[in-house]
Amino acid sequence: MSRIGKRAVAIPSGVTASVDGQTVKMKGPKGALEFVLPAEVTAKMEKGSIKVDPRNETKRARSMWGTSRTLVSNLVTGVTKGFEKKLEITGVGYRAAMQGKNLQLALGYSHDVVYAIPDGIAITVPKPTEIVVNGSDSQRVGQVAAEIRSYRPPEPYKGKGVKYANEFIFRKEGKKK
């Protein structure tokens, strides 16, 4: 039995939810999201909450049970609070700035990296060395943050590059004389 899958996903006030076959739709103050459940699980509305159950007792159905419940829960969180990822830039001369609808990154290359911000994602730069990615879809927020980080991942000797705010960089000792 899945301990996570057993719990129903509560729908807060101000959020409208509907289950249509394998599609779960949510609409709230931060926007509208939908998720198509895998064939191994089924969902139904019960007293202001959504209950996810496996169709049979196969290993795949049990593993998709908890995963699907968490993804439906992420829909509720996304349309109410939204998701946020913070990135930090470390390095001399490394900085970020907003340029209209684009994010401009100076990361030690001979040219500035210009990142076009996708729809549904909001990026703010409170400091030149800090980037905040916001959005209602957890997967898209994480993907945008990963794409920005991939332009210059942190290196292990001086720690220069773009890293997540809570990421720990394993440092290596330099060569000895």
Compact summary:
This protein is an alpha+beta fold. Helices cover 22% and strands 40% of the residues.
Question: Can you characterise this structure?
Answer:
The protein has 177 residues and is an alpha+beta fold. The protein is built from 3 helices and 13 strands, in the order αββββββαββββββαβ. The termini are far apart.
Write the layout of secondary structure elements.
Blueprint (H helix, E strand, L loop, with lengths): L2 H4 L2 E2 L5 E5 L2 E6 L2 E6 L4 E6 L2 E6 L4 H22 L2 E8 L4 E5 L2 E5 L6 E4 L4 E7 L2 E6 L2 H13 L10 E4 L13
Antiparallel strand pairs: 1-6, 2-3, 3-4, 5-6, 7-12, 7-13, 8-9, 9-10, 11-12
Give keywords.
elongated, 40% strand, 177 residues, 4-stranded antiparallel beta sheet, 3-stranded antiparallel beta sheet, alpha+beta
